[in-house]
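INPUT
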Amino acid sequence: MNTMKKTFKYIVPVLALLQLTACTKSLNVTPNSEFSPGNVLTTEPGIRSLLYSSYANEQLQTNSRYWINDSEDCTDIGYNTDGAENGQLIQIINFNWTSNLGTFSGDIWAPSYASIRDANGVIENIDNVKTTDAIKKQYKAEARVLRAQAYAWLYSFFGTVPLRTSTSSPGNLARCTDEQLKTFVETEITQSVADLPDPGKEVAFGRINKAIANGILAKFFLNTKQWQKAADACQNIINFGYYSLYPVFADMFRTANEQNREMILVLQCRNETDYSNWYQCGALPAGYKSSPQFPAYNYLPTMSIFATNYRLRTAFVSTYAPTDKRLATICTSYINNAGNTINLLPNDNARCFKYWDNAQVGNNGGADVPIIRYADILLTRAEALNELNGPTVECFTLINQVRSRAGIAPLTLVDAPTQDAFRDAILRERGWEFVGEGKRREDMIRQGKFLSSALARGISANNVTAGKVLFPIPQSEIDANKLCVQNPGY
Amino acid sequence: MDQLFTLSIKRRNIYTLLLLFLCSVRAFAQQTVSGTVSASKNGETLVGITVSIKGTQTATATNVQGHYSIKTNSANDVLVFSYVGYTSQEIPVNGQSTINVKMEEEARSINEVVVVGYGTVRKSDLTGAVTSLKASELTKAANLNVQQALLGRSSGVQVYQKSGEPGSAMSVQVRGITSITGNNDPLYVIDGMPVNDGVAVGGAAPAGTTNNPNNRTALSSLNPADIASIEILKDASATAIYGSRGANGVVLITTKRGSSGKMTVAYNVTYGTQQAAHLQRFMTGDEYTQAINGIIDLGNLSTTKVTGANANTDWQRLLLRKASLQSHDVSFSGGNENTKYYVSAGFFNQQGIMLRSGTTRYDVRMNLETAVKDKYNVGVSFTSSYTRDLYNATGTGLNDNGSALYMAQNYDPTAPVYNPDGSYYRSPLMSPMDNPLAVINGQYGVGDTYRTFGNLYGEYFIIPSLSAKVRLGADLNDAQRNYWIDPSTLTGASYNGYADVRDGKRAYYLVEGTINYNKSFNEDNRLNAVIGSTYERYTSSSLVANSRSFALSDLTYNGLGTGDNTLNGVSDGRQENILISYLARANYSFKNKYLLTGSIRADGSARFGQNNRFGYFPSGAVAWRIHEEDFLKNNKIISDLKLRASFGVTGNQPNANYIYYSTYSSGRNAVFNETRTSILQPTRAANPDLKWESAQQMDIGTDFALFDSRITGSIEYYNRKTFNLLYDIPLPQSTGFNSQTRNVGSMRNRGFEFSLKGSAVHSKDFRLELGANLTTLKNTVLSLGSVPQSIGGGPGSIGQVSILKPGYSMGSFFGYIVDGVWQKTDDFTKTQAGVRPGDLKYRDIDGNGVINTNDRVVLGKSLPDFYYGFNTSISYKALTLDAFFEGQYGAKMLNSSLVDAYYPVDYRRNKLAVPYLNRWTPTNPTNEYPSFLPNDVRGQLQVNTRTVEDASYLRLQSVRLSYSLPVSKLKFVKSVGVFATAQNLFTVTKYTGSDPAANALGDNILRIDYNTYPLTRTFTGGLNVQF
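OUTPUT
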């Protein structure tokens, strides 16, 4: 006991006092499993990983279905019923969407700006990275094109937006002018093209090459009605001689034929969570077992069928020529579990079956979603040339490459004798060709038919107001960014 | 529940600490002394009074007649009569053979010692708002953890059981909500050591269905049978000594110690059975066929009609069972004058009422202390436990990501369970939902938690009034959670089996030094002071590995390494936080009437940047014991009266580490060449200027005792304002970030607390005791800085649910007002096209003829206006009946089953019976329920006055009948008690969902009943024996 007391007598008070003077320097704790900006922003692997993040933010494989439906259900081709997704899409269908609709911020606005953020990070820091000049040039060019592409997409949905070109730009930032945005997209891309690899020479499929840059430009010029520039950008791609139409229309979407020469830019999907295409789950009708139209498609019960139904309008599906080979991606009839054949053609109930994948796992399909394919480039040039000079011979040559692959009769001057007639022909052709690829909204708007077509479908005139050609800036942005003004009509 | 130390059948108060002092013992002829012990107040004889011979281990207790008999060794022996609640008496034997004693009842609330942070004070000297609960005052039932025992027991403390899942943590809030994004749970301190309440493995899981919203509380590793007392510190003068962790109140838990004397062995056993207390009624197959086909016909819908064989399957029932419950606790305690010990072991097993759920705990404890008064004091308090939790499919997502119960409630009731070949039947129309029974049997998790928690302390008294104390503590929490998704489920089949193993470790280390000064200068001046410092380190690490596509799936998650190696996944994480603190407190008492307390704590946290690391949290309090004044001293009615007031500042640190730090981390991969490539992205919008959230709390209260302390109670007013709220302020998403944690705005919680205890009847054989408490709460968000409002989203298909807006309470629901149902005779020109008779009539707030997000209003709040508890205890001789009620008033809850009914994800899914069987039809033009036809103009209107329901309730939480067997003549046993308990017997409420206290999302603020694991009704019986 005595020893213990003695020990205590000294140890306890000494410890208690020592404890009182505990060192506050030990409060410097660094995160063990996070990377410091110093390493990321000055090394080649670091900056490359940041560049990849800019790519990844533009690759919304799973949410691409919203991107597609947001762009088609407000047009003459798409329709939707049932399921939780219908809660949002019904507003797209009925033109009564508001700035609170989650898909605007979640699927378009936020990911585009996340990509811009990381592209800005690459552009700002690339000069300090210890690597070769060639690599610096290439990464910077990729980042500038990715950033321009994000702005082009944002412009298509929302009009002008805050133009952030630096990671340190203030939170409160006003929308730029129309001219500023157009100039930005054009100069950023045109200045970068020289530093990008030729098609097929890129490090990996999906990395930006000269053709992708031109493709983004071509689509942007087309939608902003800069016809000559659009036509030229398309010609640049054609001149590479690298791309061509895939011979069998329906087969170009199969996973086995991925990276075929028609695909200039695609959203690459894998049959695993977070990287997969879910469109087919929504396109499958309830109780689907098989369809004689799709003999190669081996549907398995482990493949999800969503409660929601991604449908195509009967009036649109009925316009296909019976011989059109593109019908091989449209499901109008299937056999259900009870063995009954169900006709999907009436009641706006046909389905787009471009993305089926026999290796689908649960929700997760692996079919890529095309963003820019060669057929689009051909039709873009045809449309631009028609707008410039009316239906010239080249216009017909271009559109007929696409029609010929579809197995339908070539378009002639008799069919489309005027600029207006050719414009209509192009719009019809684009519908047949690109349904399920999310291009209809911009096509309809560009050709001035977005609102009139909605009225013709019987959508209430109270809803179909002039301001609806733009989606509203997401309310979250309006609330947080004091200088950002909402689009008129919202 | 705890009757380990029950010595009496007349008093519920148990747990005696006998302090025997050595005195010289001389050999002498043995003599038997006997007598009767009675209460001086009413002459009633007292049972269970401990009679011991001072300085020896000889002791006995009075019997039912109040009689005792003890053999003495010496004429100089001194008998000690003691019992909780009575002043101990020492009577020298002096050769007497009969000693009758009248016991003076202690003015209990005055001389009781209460544990406060870093010390103890006499209850009479308390200046702050502290609820002190002895083990006997906790809810008596089979409890896994202490939170259950606290339910409704204290004013100012709201506890509710969010889920019936065994082991799930409950929501505990002391005086409302302090923080928006910071922590809102009180700080728990066990035997002087703060509990690290972070979970080692979170609820996230490989598939949505196996996600678990109910974290296991760290308190689950503490056996409630080991608890001696609980002190809940509520106002700032009491909690400021815990500084940055004191803003939400502090719960101090003291475990049992031994007492000197012969070894006491106690054994408790409980067995019980549980079943679902309430299930929502969904349509039967017949009702479903009729209702769904009726709707399809009325709307001429393309949905497939219900035809064919009807199996009338009650899917919910298939997932439920009658479940068992058992617990065994054994303890050994005793000691001598200097050294006391308490060791215990416990076993607790609760099957879940849903298949494949449940929890089992094995625990041991050792408390050892050796001390010489005013010299030194060394001890250890230590517990180690192993817990196995079974997690079934409890997801809170949509469709195939929902729980098994969600699928059961939604699944076609005409479908059979199995195919003729014995495999699970799957209705193609229910896709992507799987057969609910397949899900519950084939998608599950198993958790193992190993936790060791304890501290060593040594105190040396330099002089009797000055001591130095050191405490070393550690809390090691090692957990593993294994998931398996079997190929017999749809999800499992798509992966060909999926195994996921999550390993998590959390550690906490404490070094604490304090110097205590405790001195009575004279009769009028008493000072009690403490200064000290603490160093606390928190670490955590995690490792997740998963694998899929198994050639053979029989090994489930144990075969992790046997999947397709090319598909394996792995991730990990590691974090650390350090808290360095300095603290000081002084209590000064003048003339026993005027009490003064001051305290300050400085906390430095590694969660903040260089400039803002330290926060300072001062407090002060005064109290006036009016009863000690001459004009009240001999008052016949008022036996005690104290007024007190306090003010102080407490704090909160952010929930996450490194928020001030700008870093890069991995994220969703980029895909090139159809192959994933890893990326790095900014981890967060770092805020280097982040600082402490601080709460200023004012408290005014009075404690009183009336009629010889037959009635005691307190009334208080509290007002707590939180400043520099830690808030994830929404950033313009155009910056590439969604939010940044900043210090903005302020919030206030204020209200009154009332508590009252009384002894209504107090006769020889019959006693009636009553207790009640009630707390009012008004939470108001005062400011969010520059943010006008923030609208929050909901689970599943539910879009926006809640609003955070100055002027309104936290957890406010935001949605539409429904005025009824459109009838044929209504004027349809006043609404938008497409609205038909039978549709819900939403109120057009802005009168523009269109229902959209601009027509939303605040629909009520998740926090109640007031909550309450009351208990009665009736004893007749050895028989006691306890009943305990609790409830709340004025809280609202979103009922997701109603959302599914009004806004079906799919028209073919099953729905709630009442709305669908009473729906609007042309021949039943009701205003109660709509036609449930799909509506082209509905959009996301799910949150409205129909789906947000009043969750006020009154519940009979527990009833217990206990009987103390007359065993006083038996030598080998001290006491035997038997009891039967019923829990959750009935609930009075207007709420139509599963339970008005439920909250399946695991969020303690916003209340959403999302297919909640049903709460249970439990019947238990048991036995307490003491040797």
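end of record. The domain at 113-267+311-332+354-762 of chain B is CATH 2.40.170 (Maltoporin; Chain A).
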